[in-house]
C-alpha cells in the first residue's frame, strides 16, 4: 500500500479519488451477471468471490502480519460445516439466509480465538508448524467425529429452507451470486479498514520487526492474536458462503491440501498489496474451472505458473501489475507496447506450443486404446500424424527464439520507460 | 526526588559465565549519563537487562521507583522507558512516516484498537510530522525505511525511540559506524530531542561522550569501576589503567 501511505498523510476527509476503486468494484460486481449470466458462469463467479474473501483473510496473516499458516482452511471449513448444521436445524426456517455467513464468521472467530491463544505466541517456523499440526488434526477429526463432520460423505443441506428475504428464496444462481457479491464487498471493505487501524498498522510493524514493536509498547503476541482472530472471522464468513453456494461441506474443504491452495492463491496474487490476493483468486479459479474443463493437466500448469511467479516475480501478479505504475505515472506505457508485442507475445505463444506438445504426449500415453483424435485450440487432428508434432514444435521453438532474441530490446525499453528524470 | 533509574546489585549469568557482576548505579532525573567500557564489558547486556530483553539473575532495576522485575519489554516501555539499538532496528518495509506513526500509537492511547482509522487522527499525523521534522527526514517520509542511508536510518532509529514521549531514553551506540559529519549531526540531534529527559547511552566515541554526558560510568568486566563527572572519570587512575588511557591516546 505504498500509494496509500502518501494519501494517508493528509488526515481527515475521504477523497473521491480514494473511493473510486470501491465504486468501480461495486459496479463491476453489479453488472457482471449481464455478461456472464449462465448457471455455470454464475457458479464460477460466486466461487471466485468466496475464494477472494478467503484469500484476503489469509493475507491478513501472511502479507500483513508475517504469519505463514499451513492450516488456515480449518477456519473456513469449520465455518462451512457449522453453517450446514444450522441449515439442517429446525430454527433455520426463521433465519434469513443472508445472515448465515455471520454465523460462520462467529464460529471461525471462536476457533481462531482458541487456537490463536497459543499458536500466535511466536511467528516464523513455530507458528507454521503449529498451524500444520492443527490442519492435520482437523483433517483427521473429520473422519473420526462423524456426528459433526459426517465422515467421508460430509454434511449437506438446502439453502432454500431458510426464511425468505423480501420474497427471495435463494433458489437460483443469480440470487446466490448477489448474496456472495454483497458479502464479498462488505468483507473487503472491512478488511481494508482493519489494515488501517492502529492494530492493523502494528501488524505490519510486528511482521517487519517483532522485537522493535515490543519496545514501542506493543506485545507482538497480542498484535498477532488480534490479526489471527479477525482473519478467522472472515475465513468463517467465506465458509458460510461456501455452504450456501455448494450446499455441502466435506473433508476436502478443510484438509491440508485446501490450506496449501489458499497459500498458493495468495502468493500467486502477491502478498505485498492489499488487493493482490484478489488477483490470485481470479487467476486460480479460472485455471481451476475453465482450464480444468479443457485439460486434466491444469494442476501441472498451475504449478508451473506458481513456480515461475515465485522465482521471477516475488511480489506476485499484483507486483507485476504495480511494476508498471512508474511508467504509467509518467505517461510512458505506450513505449512498452511494441516490446510487449515482439517479446512477451512470442514468449506466450512459445509456451502454448510447449503446452501443446505436453498435451499431445499426455494424450498418446494416457488416451484410450486406439483413440488418436484430439482437439487443441479448436483444431482437430490425429496424434499419429507427424504434422501436428512438427507444427507444435515449430511454434514452441520460434516463439521462444523470438522472445529470446528480442529480450534485450525489451529490457532496454523497460528501463527507458521507467527511468526517472533527475529531480530539478 | 526518586532516581530516574536505579540499579542495585544487578547480576546476570549466562550458564556459568557471569557477565554482569553486581552493578549499583543511580541515575537522576534529567541527567545525561554515558556508560563506557572496553568491548565485552557487558554494556549491551546491561541495556538488555534494564529494558527487559533479558531477565536478571539477581538484583533489581527500578524505574522512577517502580521495580521492573519480571516485566516484559512492552510493559517497561509503557512505563516511560524507550531504547534504541546498536544494530539498526527499524521497520524496513514500512514507510518512514509509518515507522514514526507506529511509534506514537501506544502513547496516544490507541492500544489494540481496531475501530479507529489511523489516517483520520490529526494528532497522529501532526505528531509524526513533527518528529520527522525534528530528525530531518520530512523529505523521506514516503520512502520505505529500508532504502534510507545508514545515517538516515540511525536518525530514524532515534526518532522511533523518542516518538512515544518516554522520559527515560536509552541509546545503544547511536553513532556507531558513522563518519565525522554524520556523528556531529546525530549528537546535535540527541541533544535536541532529549531536552528535559533522562538519557542513558552506551558510546565508544569519546568525543561524543565528553560532549554530551553530565556523568559517566565505566563498566569493566561486568562491574562499574568509576562513576562521576567527565573530568573526574578522566582523571581516575583506575579508569586510565583499565581502559580510558588507551582509548584517549588513540583519540
Topology of helices and strands:
The complex is a heterodimer of chains A (424) and B (251).
Chain A: H1 2-7, H2 16-35, H3 39-65, H4 73-88, H5 100-119, H6 124-144, H7 146-149, E1 155-156, H8 173-195, H9 198-208, H10 210-214, H11 220-246, E2 248-249, H12 256-269, H13 276-294, H14 298-312, H15 316-322, H16 325-329, H17 337-366, E3 373-376, E4 379-382, H18 387-418
Antiparallel strand pairs in A: 1-2, 3-4
Chain B: E1 5-14, E2 17-27, E3 32-36, H1 43-50, E4 58-63, E5 66-67, H2 73-78, E6 81-83, H3 96-105, H4 122-134, H5 150-163, E7 168-172, H6 180-193, E8 198-202, H7 206-212, E9 215-220, E10 223-228, H8 230-235, H9 237-250
Parallel strand pairs in B: 3-8, 3-9, 6-7, 7-8
Antiparallel strand pairs in B: 1-2, 1-4, 4-5, 9-10
Describe this structure in words.
The complex is a heterodimer of chains A (424) and B (251). Chain A has 424 residues and is mostly helical. Chain A has helices at residues 2-7, 16-35, 39-65, 73-88, 100-119, 124-144, 146-149, 173-195, 198-208, 210-214, 220-246, 256-269, 276-294, 298-312, 316-322, 325-329, 337-366, 387-418; strands spanning 155-156, 248-249, 373-376, 379-382. In chain A, helix 8 (173-195) packs antiparallel against helix 11, helix 12 (256-269) crosses helix 13 and helix 13 (276-294) packs across helix 15. In chain B, a hairpin with a 2-residue loop joins strand 4 (58-63) and strand 5. Chain B is α/β, with parallel strands linked by helices and 251 residues long. Chain B is 37% helix and 24% strand. Chain B has helices spanning 43-50, 73-78, 96-105, 122-134, 150-163, 180-193, 206-212, 230-235, 237-250, and strands at residues 5-14, 17-27, 32-36, 58-63, 66-67, 81-83, 168-172, 198-202, 215-220, 223-228. In chain B, helix 3 runs parallel beside helix 5 (150-163). The A-B interface holds A 2, 5-12, 193-194, 196-202, 204-205, 207-209, 211-219, 222-223, 226, 230 and B 51, 53, 72-74, 77-78, 82-83, 85, 89-95, 97-98, 101-103, 105-107, 110-122, 124-126, 129, 141-142, 144, 160, 164.
Amino acid at each position: 500500500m505504498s500509494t496509500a501511505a502518501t494519501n494517508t498523510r493528509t488526515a481527515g476527509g475521504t477523497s473521491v479519488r480514494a473511493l473510486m476503486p470501491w465504486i468501480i468494484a461495486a459496479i463491476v460486481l453489479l453488472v457482471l451477471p449481464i455478461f456472464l449470466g449462465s448457471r455455470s458462469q454464475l457458479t464460477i463467479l460466486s466461487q471466485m468471490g468466496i475464494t477472494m474473501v478467503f484469500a484476503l483473510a489469509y493475507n491478513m496473516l501472511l502479507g500483513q502480519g508475517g504469519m505463514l499458516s499451513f492450516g488456515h482452511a480449518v477456519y473456513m471449513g469449520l465455518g462451512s460445516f457449522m453453517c450446514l448444521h444450522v441449515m439442517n436445524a429446525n430454527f433455520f426456517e426463521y433465519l434469513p439466509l443472508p445472515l448465515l455467513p455471520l454465523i460462520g464468521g462467529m464460529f471461525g472467530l471462536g476457533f481462531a480465538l482458541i487456537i490463536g491463544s497459543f499458536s500466535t505466541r511466536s511467528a516464523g517456523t513455530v507458528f507454521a508448524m503449529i498451524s500444520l499440526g492443527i490442519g492435520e488434526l482437523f483433517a483427521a477429526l473429520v473422519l473420526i467425529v462423524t456426528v459433526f463432520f459426517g465422515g467421508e460423505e460430509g454434511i449437506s443441506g438446502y439453502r432454500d429452507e431458510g426464511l425468505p428475504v423480501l420474497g427471495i428464496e435463494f433458489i437460483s444462481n443469480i440470487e446466490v451470486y448477489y448474496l456472495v457479491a454483497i458479502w464479498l464487498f462488505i468483507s473487503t471493505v472491512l478488511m481494508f479498514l482493519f489494515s488501517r487501524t492502529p492494530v492493523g498498522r502494528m501488524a505490519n510493524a510486528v511482521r517487519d520487526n517483532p522485537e522493535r514493536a515490543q519496545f514501542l509498547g506493543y506485545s507482538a503476541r497480542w498484535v498477532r492474536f488480534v490479526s489471527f482472530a479477525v482473519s478467522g472471522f472472515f475465513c468463517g464468513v467465506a465458509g458460510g458462503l461456501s455452504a450456501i453456494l455448494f450446499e455441502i461441506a466435506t473433508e476436502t474443504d478443510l484438509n491440508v491440501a485446501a490450506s496449501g491452495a489458499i497459500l498458493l492463491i495468495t502468493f500467486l496474487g502477491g502478498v505485498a498489496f492489499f488487493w493482490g490476493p484478489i488477483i490470485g483468486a481470479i487467476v486460480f479459479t479460472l485455471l481451476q474451472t475453465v482450464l480444468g474443463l479443457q485439460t486434466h493437466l491444469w494442476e501441472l500448469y498451475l504449478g508451473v505458473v506458481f513456480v515461475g511467479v515465485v522465482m521471477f516475480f516475488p511480489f506476485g501478479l499484483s507486483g507485476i501489475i504495480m511494476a508498471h505504475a512508474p511508467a504509467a505515472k509518467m505517461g510512458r506505457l505506450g513505449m512498452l507496447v511494441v516490446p510487449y508485442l515482439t517479446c512477451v507475445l512470442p514468449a506466450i505463444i512459445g509456451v502454448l506450443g510447449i503446452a501443446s506438445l505436453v498435451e499431445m504426449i499426455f494424450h498418446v500415453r494416457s488416451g484410450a486404446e486406439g483413440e488418436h483424435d484430439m482437439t487443441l485450440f479448436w483444431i482437430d487432428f490425429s496424434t499419429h500424424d507427424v504434422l501436428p508434432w512438427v507444427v507444435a514444435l515449430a511454434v514452441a521453438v520460434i516463439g521462444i527464439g523470438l522472445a529470446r532474441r528480442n529480450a534485450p530490446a525489451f529490457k532496454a525499453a523497460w528501463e527507458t520507460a521507467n527511468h526517472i528524470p533527475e529531480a530539478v | 526526588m526518586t532516581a530516574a533509574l536505579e540499579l542495585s546489585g544487578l547480576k546476570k549469568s549466562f550458564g556459568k559465565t557471569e557477565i554482569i557482576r553486581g552493578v549499583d548505579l543511580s541515575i537522576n532525573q534529567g541527567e545525561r549519563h554515558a556508560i563506557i567500557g572496553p568491548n565485552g564489558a557487558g554494556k549491551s547486556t546491561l541495556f538488555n537487562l534494564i529494558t527487559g530483553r533479558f531477565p536478571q539473575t539477581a538484583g533489581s532495576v527500578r524505574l522512577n521507583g517502580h521495580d521492573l522485575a519480571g516485566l516484559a519489554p512492552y510493559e517497561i516501555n509503557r512505563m516511560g522507558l524507550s531504547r534504541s539499538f546498536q544494530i539498526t532496528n527499524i521497520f524496513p518495509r514500512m514507510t518512514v512516516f509509518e515507522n514514526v506513526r507506529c511509534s506514537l500509537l501506544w502513547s496516544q492511547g490507541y492500544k489494540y484498537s481496531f475501530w479507529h482509522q489511523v489516517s483520520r487522527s490529526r494528532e497522529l499525523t501532526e505528531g509524526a510530522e513533527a518528529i520527522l521534522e525534528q530528525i530531518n527526514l520530512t523529505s523521506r517520509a514516503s520512502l520505505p525505511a529500508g532504502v534510507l542511508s545508514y545515517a538516515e536510518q540511525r536518525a530514524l532509529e532515534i526518532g522511533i525511540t523518542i516518538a512515544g514521549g518516554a522520559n527515560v531514553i536509552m541509546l545503544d551506540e547511536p553513532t556507531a559506524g558513522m563518519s565525522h559529519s554524520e556523528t556531529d549531526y546525530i549528537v546535535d540531534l540527541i541533544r535536541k530531542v532529549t531536552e528535559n529527559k533522562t538519557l542513558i547511552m552506551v558510546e565508544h566515541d569519546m568525543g561524543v561522550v565528553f560532549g554530551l554526558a553530565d556523568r559517566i560510568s565505566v563498566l569493566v568486566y561486568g562491574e562499574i569501576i568509576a562513576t562521576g563527572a567527565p573530568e573526574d572519570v578522566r582523571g581516575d587512575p583506575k579508569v586510565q589503567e583499565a581502559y580510558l588511557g588507551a582509548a584517549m591516546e588513540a583519540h
